[in-house]
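HUMAN: Can I see a protein plus its fold?

ASSISTANT:
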Amino acid sequence: MKETLRSIPPVHELQHHPQFKVLIEQNQLDAAALTSLLKDILDETRQAIIHQQWLGPLPGTESFIDEIFQQLQYKIKKQLSYTLEKVINATGTILHTNLGRARLSNAAIQHVVEVAQNYSNLEYKLNEGERGSRHSHVEALIKEITGAEAAMVVNNNAAAVYLVLRALAKNKEVIVSRGQLVEIGGSFRISSIMEESGATLIEVGTTNKTHLYDYENAVTPDTAIIMKVHTSNFKVIGFTKSVESEELIQLTKTREDVLFYEDLGSGALFDLRNHGIGDEPVVKEVIGLGADVVTFSGDKLLGGPQAGIIAGKKAIIDRLKKHQLARVVRVDKMTLAALEGTLLDYARGEKTMKNIPVIRDLLISVNELDERAANFVTNLLQRTTAFQANIFQATSQVGGGTMPDVELPARVIALRHESLTAEQLGRKLRTESKPAIIGRIQKDEFLIDLRTVTKEEEEQLLDTLLHI
């Protein structure tokens, strides 16, 4: 073994090998970085030999040197490749949390690129020639779309909830119905966020029933907020009762220094109810009822980047902007650019709202899905005999903890391969395809829902299946 270990070429010798120089040029690495990776490989090789786990060529041979440089090439590729990469979402779930939720519009993407590549007036007033506020870039749009007196943006909706409770109810009481103490993704609970904020949670009612008198009886001189949480990620059905926002707003108007705050979660700016999709409240309606402050997400039904949007009365939003935590949870220029690009389509009206992928995918007709699925299957079966394919009626999900009871009519393609199981096919599409393709597996069939696949991605998906 000692003789074998002594046969491993020293680092300085491998540094002068022609392959070392080729790897530097091909990968635009400096010699020090490549040397560090080379040392790691040699150390791993020594350990493998010592523990009798080395299966490669014997040290001292040209084959051994080739093996070392092959491993070095693999290590470079692994280290210098992006881990965050594009995938094709063929699941039909529009707001797929694991796959990045909302797909941004072309306008939003172009605006991000322009702002990211250049200097910008992020915190500068061009007309006045003086320092400005980053809040101003989207505030006017949010005000116009929602009817709020003022608005601000933070890095996500959990941060928005936390900031509101911390700034407006620290060491005070916040009244919430027991049926609204939700847990959102990643085990974040409204009750836990409230505890961290320093506010005292006052639970009223029961899981399935809460009445107006429950709130009335709970108000004390220490009450700061009556809070309503829109339960967008679950539904309670059957023997239920909840209090409408309008009633709670009227109640707070009769109580001195008590605010009404509603966390709307999914952030619907477009009324999907007009298209028979769900019963999600529109932000503008709640603001119009007289809510003091509302919060909602940017990357769910709104269809923009991850953000938490706070809108409401100007005096309240001004307090939040001045709070020390506002800097902790503020957003960067790229988030603001993506949000501005998205909101502009809302500001122009319903026709341009369909430029937003989330809205477009929610509204796509069954007839269009049927036609696209039929064309896809025809193109596949005309060009290969390796697959069996059929189309069946199914449903798509909204996803992202939004409208869990809503089922969108869909036409799903079910594939069977002549030699691969559905699991094997799914793994190939996930690990060997670039971009990776994510679908669903059911009854040993690989399912494709084109609702979340663009026309361009359809071609990529078809080509990948043909190569398999």
Q: What stands out?
A: The chain has a mean pLDDT of 93.
